[in-house]
Amino acid sequence: MPNHIQHVVVPGTFDPVTLGHVDVINRARHLFPQVTVAVAESRTKRGIGTAFSLEERVDMLREALDEQGVSSLGGVSVLPFTGLLVDFCRQQGAGGVVKGLRAMTDFESELQQADLNAQLAPDLESVFVMSNPGYGYVSSSIVRELALLGGPVEMLVPACVVRRLREHYGTEG
Ligand code: PNS
User: Fold this and answer.
1) Taking CA atoms, which of 18, 102, 126, 169 is between 20 and 30 Å from 143?
2) Total domains, the chain
């Protein structure tokens, strides 16, 4: 009998969560019965830290997954983590990591991370889903830039995140 993976982790910085992330989490949940979304502290991200605190990013994700109907599938939880992803997966008893791939530009760094994680935890499977073509260009960094400049972000992020971005950047969008 093959030992099917029951529980996967979808990790990321989620600064902030986008509709592209929500799509990946939703698809991970359709592939596996239990999904833990792991929000990395990422204190050293871009050398300057994140725009939103770890607590804010976790809150936004929970709200976004409720708003977008993913929570109602059941089996989805959101937790913060610090330290190595492989250690978090081990603590949670997860057998795999699911990530979304957009363009070729994502591939190199994702392969590097997957190879490193495979060295650190040979039993942990890395699974990639191709991003929904409608969200291929969406990233947290373009969302932050648009929001900072007062541009429209409604088509890129859940409504609850639009509100948080306006509060954070003090713009009307
Ligand atoms: O959304 P991001 O910033 O592309 O996510 C990257 C993340 C958080 C998944 C990655 O940096 C990570 O796994 N960080 C935890 C620390 C770790 O395990 N590092 C070694 C693997 S890169």
Assistant:
1) 126
2) 1
